[in-house]
Amino acid sequence: MLSPDKIERINQLAKKKKAEGLTPAEVKEQAKLREEYLASFRSGMRHHIEGMKVVDPEGNDVTPDKLKEIQKQKGIHNRNDNF
């Protein structure tokens, strides 16, 4: 998770870029912060998706096999059975 200070700095740089432009040092800082933000977002999204269990309207577990295997490896949803 990105710290609130870094998110605030991302927003400051975005506003400054629109208003007056950024210095070369600020452009580099913005790119670095953007990469940190994206890495944090991707990690959180991956964690969220890996924890999902897909169920059809009849209540049957229809989670894709690839996801079941990841969950089994990580011990999520007690995926110890063979599918």
UniProtKB/TrEMBL annotation:
Keywords: Cytoplasm. NCBIfam families: PRK02539.1. Its main location: cytoplasm. It is found in: Cytoplasm. Signal peptide: none annotated. InterPro entries: DUF896. This is UPF0291 protein DOK79_002522. Belongs to the UPF0291 family. The keyword Cytoplasm applies. SUPFAM superfamilies: YnzC-like.
